[in-house]
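Weekly modeling sync, notes
Attendees: S.R. (lead), two postdocs, one rotation student

Agenda item 3: backlog of single-chain predictions. S.R. asked that every request posted to the team notebook include the full sequence so nobody has to chase files. The rotation student volunteered to paste the first one in as an example of the format we agreed on. Action items at the bottom.

Example entry:
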Amino acid sequence: MKKTRAFLKWAGGKYGLIEDIQQQLPEGDTLVEPFVGAASVFLNTDYSRYLLSDINPDLINLYKLLQTSPQKFINDAKLYFTPECNQSEFYYEVRKRFNATTDSYQRSLMFLYMNRHGYNGLCRYNRSGGFNVPFGSYKRPYFPEHELAFFAEKAKRAEFRCCSYVETFADIKAGDIVYCDPPYAPLSPTASFTNYASKGFNRSDQERLGELAIAAQQRGASVLISNHDLPLTRTIYQSSELSQLSVRRTISRKGHKRMKVAELLAYYRAN
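Predicted structure, as returned to the notebook:
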């Protein structure tokens, strides 16, 4: 199966790990993703039904719009991808408007624009919920027209929900396949990168996710979780089948610091 890229740039996106994840995911009817992010796993698997959730309302609103009005959205979004729009003054004006409006359609257009024009494709909010990623200064940001259309077509099989991972796990049934890509446990106290939404993801969340995975396994679901390979995560996932991977990080400010770091895949096989 040819790999498909997500239309969003996303820190920690799983495009580079797709083959490893595909090998671990079992067959089934429904794939559940409580941390869907840029949706690379959704795009590169073939289940008959998907339940895709995330705590970020801007992300889920965008996905729902692509599901219901794909061509209108793609046509309108394309207007933001011109040389005139690739200027810092324009970017900061869009960011200001984005943070001031509650119009979900306009926010979705601006969210895609800022994702492709902002620094390193980051999705980051301040404590007040304001998007605060700086301008990226790219020569010619790519408009992902093909990727948007592919997503919209596949979204016919999906249900999108804006909710917490805890709420999503509450609906998991026997036979479901669950893939979790939570905000990773930090490699160091200063490396935490968990503000994809205005609420963070702390150690107790990491531990809670491990508990929910065990409970889902006992109900007859299979759960696969990605995270950094750390003593903490090995302790949390100690009752799972663990495999180690090595992945190049791409969110470091300096290219020479984009080192390979060890990652874990923790698999809870259905009972």
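Discussion: group reviewed the output briefly. Residues 203-218 form the longest helix (16 residues).
Action items: rotation student to repeat for the remaining queue; S.R. to check formatting next week.
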